[in-house]
Amino acid sequence: MKSISSVYKIGNGPSSSHTVGPFHAAQTFGSRYPDADAYRVTLYGSLAFTGEGHGTGKAIREGLPGAEVIFDPDETDLPHPNTMRFQAYKGGKEIASLRIFSIGGGSIRIENEYSEEDKEVYPQKNFSEILELCNQEKISLLQLIYILEGAPLREYLRKVWRAMQDSVERGLATEGILPGGLNLTRKAKYLYEKRCYNESSDVAMNRVIAAYAYAVSEENAAENVVVTAPTCGSCGVLPSILYYMHHDRGFPEEDILDALAVAGLLGNVIRTNASISGAECGCQAEIGSACSMAAGAVASLFGLSIDQIEYAAEIAMEHNLGLTCDPVNGLVQIPCIERNAVAAMRALSAVNLSRFLYATRKISFDEVVATMYRTGLDLNEKYRETSHGGLAQIYKEYSSQERKTD
Ligand code: SF4
Fold first, then answer.
1. Which of 16, 48, 364, 392 could connect to 71 by a Cys-Cys bridge, CB 3.0–4.6 Å?
2. φ, ψ for residue 153 (rounded to 5)?
3. 274-331 pLDDT, tens per residue?
4. What is the CA(273)–ligand 1 centre distance, in A?
5. Distance between Cα 326 and ligand 1 center (Å)
């Protein structure tokens, strides 16, 4: 398996391949040629066809300020459907030119270059092998992670955590209508401030965590910077719980970074053995994975055993099996934003069950991951990010009726 760091990508929403990957590519190119006085970026293939609507131009300009962005839908001889050409100029002369491909999940590949991201870091293929080694060597998941990944992972996770917190805070501070035409109002701030009279601590906790999840997911829908965890569509689940644990419950930052590492390992297992793509396996691959990662993170934060961490992650995935991807109008808004909040609360319930029942479990994490993948491949294409079925379809059919609420 590859490094955990490739699970968490920092970039602009709402789509990992159309915004996070291009943002990453722009930053990479800019850091190689910081002395250039002008940059040009040409987008081809799918990025040229749908990039304007998906905010690819904005993502490039944020990663490479001042860049001129050109959409070229006519070029068909492309090595990858998401191809970009980056050019740097100095004094009017071209000093560098690179083709970079956005290959999915926010990952990029530079033409003719080996990427550090491709390096295999974990000899283990799945969670059972990880568990076996940890038991054999009497080490924790965290110890295994840092033996294999070393200090650079820690520093990267610190950056990831900063970006996650920023997305919660920006989302909480912003009101108004989200872009895209659905006329959806942002709700994070309202939810955060709307205390009930005599609110119990449980209700308050759920409301506040949900507000954090809305905050991040609304930032994603507004094409602002988020962290894939493991995708843009599911980017609110993990940060919402960890933000609550740090800011409302007082868990120290170092513990939060540990929890992020454990969640990343689980995401890595899912990505390697199944899929984290809604287009490939439906929303169970996005929100199911995020819920599973969040449950494992919290179980680890609470100091539960490896078995309890595994069981929490397994429960969280199992009860998202079959979850379809049917975003209304193709926007990452309905059902996505609300779904992030619901998944965050579900992750906490999974931890509570695992705490007491782990010794009686029958299904392993690897088994539920394999089930998710197989179920995903069986899902009708209508429910795999095409907006041709489910809520997307019903919404269209009912769209002639007046909608007073959203
Ligand atoms: S419904 Fe589809 S687009 Fe929305 S979060 Fe789930 S997988 Fe992503």
1. 48
2. -65, -40
3. 999 888 899 999 999 999 999 999 999 999 999 999 999 999 999 999 999 999 988 8
4. 20
5. 7
Cβ of 188 less than 6 Å from ligand 1: no
The CB density around residue 32, as the number of other CB atoms within 10 Å, is 13
| Closest C-alpha to ligand 1, atom 2 | 325
Domain boundaries, the chain: 14-118, 127-398
Q: Are the C-beta atoms of 373 and 274 separated by less than 8 Å?
A: yes
pLDDT at site 53: 63
The model's pTM = 0.89
Instruction: Out of 385, 388, 391, 394, give the residue to mutate to test ligand 1, the one with the largest number of ligand atoms within 8 Å of its CB.
Output: 385
Low-confidence ranges of the chain (pLDDT < 50): none
C-alpha 249 – ligand 1 centre gap (Å): 30
Sequence-separated (6 or more) residues with CB below 8 Å from residue 164: 216, 226, 227, 229, 238, 239, 242, 243
The architecture that CATH gives domain 14-118 is 2-Layer Sandwich (3.30)
Q: Write the DSSP symbol of residue 309.
A: H
**CA of residue 327 to ligand 1 center, whole Å:** 6
